[in-house]
C-alpha cells in the first residue's frame, strides 16, 4: 500500500512543480557541461524525458525495468548515444539522470512522509542512470569497431607501381578479415589498371606463420585466376629461415628479398611477353 | 625438459580468448626475448612458434593462458613459454605432430613446425586439456 501512496505523492509533486524542477534540472546539467550543449537543446531533451518518466510512474509505478518505462528508456538510450557520439564522458552522461535527484531532494527528503517516496524515486533514477552507461558503452564500442574497419581499409593500399604492375605493401598482422580486404582490393585494382603482375610486399609483416602463409597463398591463387602473376617480396633473412624451419613451401610462387628486385623481375617478364606477342603476329 | 615451473611464478600471464589476445601474447614474447638480448633470427623463430601454439590453443583448446618467463640454466639464458588450455586434448599426438596433418583446414604445420623452431619442446595432453612448454636459448 505504501508504494501506491508514494507513487501518488510523487506524481502530484512532479506534476505541480514541473516547470520549476525542469528549469533547475536543465540549469544544473547546463553548468556541468559548460556550454558544450545549448540550453535550449538540453531543455527540450530533458523536458521530453521528464514527461516520459512522469507518465510511466503514473501508469505503472516506480519499477524502471517495467514495460511502462519503455518510452522513457528509449529516450534515455537515444540521449546516451548522442552524448557518446558528441564526446561527452560516461560520467557526464549518467549525471544527466542523477542530477534530478539533487533537484528533488530539498522538496522531498526533509519530511518523513515524503522521504520514503524520495528514496524510491532515487532508486529508480539509479537504475535509469546505469542504463545510460550501458547504452553509452555500447555506442562507443560500435564507434571503435567501425573505426577499426576504416583503418583496415586505409592500411591496405594497393598501388599501381608501373604499367602492368600493381603493388600491395602489407603492414602489420594478416588475419582473415585483413586478407579478405587485401584480396578484394588487389583483384579490383588488377582489373582497373589492366595489370598482369602483382607484387605483394611483406616487409612490414612482423610474423609470418602458417596462418599468414595460408592467407598469402590464397591471395596468390585468386590473382592467378584473373590471369595475373604474383611475386612475394620483402622476405627478410630471419623470416626466410623461419619459414623454412616451419616447413612452409611457397611452391612455384616467385619470392624476392626486395621490392626493387621484384619490380625488375616483373618488368622483365612483361618485356618478354610483349616480345612473344610481337613474334606471334609476324 | 627441465621443469621451469618455479621460474614460471614470476612469469607474465596472458589470458587468450580471442585472436587479438594471441597477438598480445606474441608481443609479450617478442618484448621479453628482445630485452634478453636474443638474436633477431632466434627471436623471430620463437615468436613464430608462440604464434602457432597460441592459435592452436585458441582454435582447438577454446582458449587458455600463455605464460612467458626469462629463464637461466647453468650459464645460458633463454625464454620459456607455456601454453595451457582446458580443451578436449589431442587424440593422437603422433598424428598431430606429423607435417601436413590437420583436423581442420590449416596447413598442419603448426605443431611440428613450432617444435623445429625452438630448442626444447614438451607437450602433455589429455581429455582435460593440453599444455605445451617451449624454451628457446639465447644467441
Ligand atoms: N591445443 C590443442 N588442443 C586440441 N587439439 C590440438 C591442439 N593443438 C593442435 N591440435 C590438433 O593437432 C592438429 C595439428 O595441429 P597443427 O598446429 O600442426 O596444424 P593446424 O593447426 O591444423 O594447421 P596450421 O598449420 O595452420 O597450424 C590440429 O589440426 C588439431 O587437431
Ligand atoms: Mg596450428
UniProtKB/TrEMBL annotation, chain A:
InterPro entries: Bact_StressResp_Reg, RsbRD_N_dom, STAS_dom, STAS_dom_sf
Keywords annotated in UniProt: Phosphoprotein
Keyword Phosphoprotein: yes
Residue ranges of domain STAS in the record: 155-266
Pfam assignment, any one: RsbRD_N
UniProt-recorded name of the protein: Anti-anti-sigma factor
Organism: Streptomyces griseofuscus
UniProtKB/TrEMBL annotation, chain B:
Keyword Heme: no
Organism of this sequence: Streptomyces griseofuscus
Organism domain of life: Bacteria
SMART domains per record: HATPase_c
Gene3D superfamilies tied to this protein: Histidine kinase-like ATPase, C-terminal domain (3.30.565.10)
InterPro entries (UniProt xref): HATPase_C_sf, HATPase_dom
Coiled coil: none
Keywords on record: Kinase, Serine/threonine-protein kinase, Transferase
Protein name stated in the entry: Anti-sigma regulatory factor
GO molecular function: protein serine/threonine kinase activity
Domain Histidine kinase/HSP90-like ATPase: 41-139
